[in-house]
Amino acid sequence: MGKLITVVGNSGVGKTTLTQQLCASLPSISALEQHAERPFQKLFSADLQRYSLANQVDYLLFRAEQELSIRQNVDIGVQDGGLDLDFHVFTKHFFNKGYLSQAEYQLCRRLYVSFRKTLPPPDLIVHLTAPLEVIASRHEKRKRQLDIAGLSDLRELEQLLGDWLGGDNGLNIVVIDTTRDENYDHAVKYLAQEINQLL
Q1: φ, ψ dihedrals at 36, nearest 5°
Q2: pTM for this structure?
Q3: Phi-psi region for residue 89, left (φ > 0), alpha (ψ -120 to 50) or beta?
Q4: Can you spell out the DSSP letters for 28-43?
Q5: Cβ–Cβ contacts within 10 Å for residue 106, how many?
Q6: 3-state secondary structure (DSSP) of residue 176
Q7: C-alpha dihedral (161, 163, 167, 168), degrees to nearest 10
Q8: CA–CA separation, 38 and 35 (whole Å)
Q9: Could you please report the per-residue DSSP string of 87-124?
Q10: What is the per-residue pLDDT across 91-146, written as a single tens digit (0 to 9) for each?
Q11: Domains in the chain, start-ordered, CATH in brackets?
């Protein structure tokens, strides 16, 4: 069974960049968010309430499908974000913003719980951190065309990350402070060693 590493963190902290660099330095396959390729992302960005449920269901399904493909392989798979981040942070954030109704949120929750009953949790979660002002600066610089989370959302996203990852949750988490390592040279070397030991 293939091993799964997920790279999580706030919007704009550098999940995709680190995932790509990590995959380039290890015998692994990448499983990226693919915002532009998702069928409801553009519709959601134009009409947040009408397409929020379809967009979240699509992402949860897509991430579960990525995990299943990785588990059926023999290589290490590295995801930027992933199923757990999409539910615990972004689905909850969209519910808090009023884009998802209570019934729609519960539907997403049922879907997520069903996936986690059949798919094991990630073997390693890499949590990228930085002060909010640093994340906001990076978020502004990337200028992603289909960016649902804005600067005003970063504080709540950070709180939701803390709620999910904090406490005794049984997850295998490595925290990487990216404040002074924006190119991730140090992080990639460190993680390569950690992954070889842990996995």
Answers
A1: -65, -25
A2: 0.89
A3: alpha
A4: EEEE---GGGSTTHHH
A5: 12
A6: strand
A7: -80
A8: 5
A9: IIIIIHHHHHTTSS-HHHHHHHHHHHHHHHHHSPPPSE
A10: 999 999 999 999 999 999 999 999 999 999 999 999 999 899 988 888 777 665 54
A11: 3-198 (3.40.50.300)
